[in-house]
């Protein structure tokens, strides 16, 4: 029987017309039958403040901690804001990093990102890689999905229409499944 995988995926953009959320949804559609990709929303995560979790973590964060902990791998899809990740994604990561559940500990992670600009979120993604170190997550080295000129790669309904990007994402999903196998053997 074919092995099944459950990936969790977070978009670092809250806006409705987000290219990064379009990338996440494209990955959900492109995933083979044995891989499910559940979108986790960070919309409800409050601003990080120690006082908020001194006694108990906010419910929205606890729900994310549990889903991340249970996932075979996590996909982070990041926009690039001022050469870095979006504030809302960094804020959520700060919460994850303080949870006693350690949701990202030894977690296989894949990074993707999209921008209408030419650099494909490369600067944000390398910062995100670095951010994953204190959480003891393991970020897959290749393939890297850095989507430039995103506005030319989706139609008005948000469907991915670029063949090369489609192939890259399919390969990324298969690679992340193989990468996550390494961690389950331990
Ligand atoms: C505050 C801010 C800073 C930005 N800085 C960058 C940047 O450094 N590099 C880049 O490629 N795009 C930058 N952009 C443009 C974003 O890539 C663009 O808004 C993109 O659509 C955001 O991702 P989303 O479509 O998923 O919301 C910036 C946008 C905002 C709002």
3D structure, described in words:
- This protein is of the alpha/beta class and 186 residues long.
- Helices cover 39% and strands 17% of the residues.
- It has helices at residues 19-30, 50-53, 59-70, 87-98, 122-131, 163-184, and strands spanning 5-11, 35-40, 73-78, 108-114, 138-139, 145-147.
- The protein is globular.
- Residues 13, 15, 18-20, 79-83, 115-117, 119 line the site of flavin mononucleotide.
Instruction: State the distance separating the first and last CA atoms.
Output: 22 Å
Low-confidence stretches: none
Fourth-tier CATH superfamily name: Flavodoxin domain
User: What percent of the residues sit in helical stretches (DSSP H or I)?
Assistant: 25-40%
What is the arithmetic mean of pLDDT?
Answer: 97
Q: What's the CATH architecture? A: 3-Layer(aba) Sandwich
Number of helices: 6
Taking Cα atoms only, what radius of gyration do you get, to the nearest Å?
16 Å
Helix and strand succession? Answer: EHEHHEHEHEEH
Give the CATH level 1 class.
Alpha Beta
Q: Give the class from helix and strand content and strand pairing.
A: alpha/beta
What is the secondary structure topology, with strand pairs?
Blueprint: E1 5-11, H1 19-30, E2 35-40, H2 50-53, H3 59-70, E3 73-78, H4 87-98, E4 108-114, H5 122-131, E5 138-139, E6 145-147, H6 163-184
Parallel strand pairs: 1-2, 1-3, 3-4, 4-5, 4-6
The chain binds flavin mononucleotide (FMN).
Flavin mononucleotide binds next to helix 1.
